[in-house]
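Please, structure for the following, as tokens.
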Amino acid sequence: MLKSKEAYEFICKGINRKGKINEFETIFGQNKTDINNDTVKTNKVKQDDNYIEVKRFAANFYKAPIVNYKGYVKGKEQADKNRYSEVISSTLLSKNLLKTWKELEPVRTNHFDTDHTPSEELDMKRLQSTNRKEEILAKLLFYQGNIDGLGYIFDYQTPLKEARNDSYGKIDLLGYNTDDECYSVIELKYRPSGSDETLLRCVLEAYTYYKLLDINQIKSAVGHDGIQKLKELSGYKHTNESELVVLFDEKSCAKDDGGAENNLMLRIVSNEPDDPNNYPSKTVVSQQYKECQELINPSKRKALRALCEAILKQESKLKQIRFVVLQAQKVSKAPYKNKVDNWSENLDHLYRAETLLTISK
């Protein structure tokens, strides 16, 4: 197996961005402390030199700025095969780098030792005081529970790191797909002004988090309200099978384009009703939605599709990868009325989802 830096060099050269190799230490140096603490961690995860190198590359690659590049490789014709994400996907496959993800293992002994509960009480003013809108949206989906077209959401911001110096993030949402009887590792992408992350980044991030999640902890978890309610669902049964879900907004609409009805989070607004910051300055289609429309076309984004298929092939318990658009549905009855202080029924929505594309085995 190539060392982390050699693997990154291959990809940077493939997209004609050799200068980006200088970013290596910033991106992949985050787990270096694991090497110093190896004697401590060997009781939980076997970390020989090869494993450490694999972890550094596979666990951090989705964060690399090049993974989020749009457009075409410099010096190449503007053909679909020469898009940055297509060339990176092809290189991961041709250089056999995708297999490094197989070596990732969960490190956290308890993903569900949080105080997350679907019935927790929150103050709307506290929600309004933060700009972490994606995190707030994840909470609202968790509070709603069952999302038509998506499944039952039983946790949000699920932690993956064991030690403070671990670079791992948190899973945006965990759900249960009642139709396909599998757990959903959901990567949520939302920004009021339109999310601009590539589908390549979304897929790699979701896959990385899937590898760092111990599914069996769902079965053994106690004292977690979301999981307890999940276990009470009619027809629910624990399974070792999962899916990756990339969940995104179609577009952020300006006020004149129906923002009040369509935007996902106009409910979280300032106390000033005329504040122009309640709406984006222009209607912006999300990068994920644009790329998904191209991915649906069998003649476009072939390398990204091939990467998704290769991920499924090397993971026996991973059933499918779904690309899902989230929508706000205006309702007259506030589902959060008794849960959130200072809630405005006039701005309330229910959420629903629509699967645009499923890639399965």
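Residues 122-360 form one domain. Residues 31-47 have pLDDT under 50 and may be disordered.
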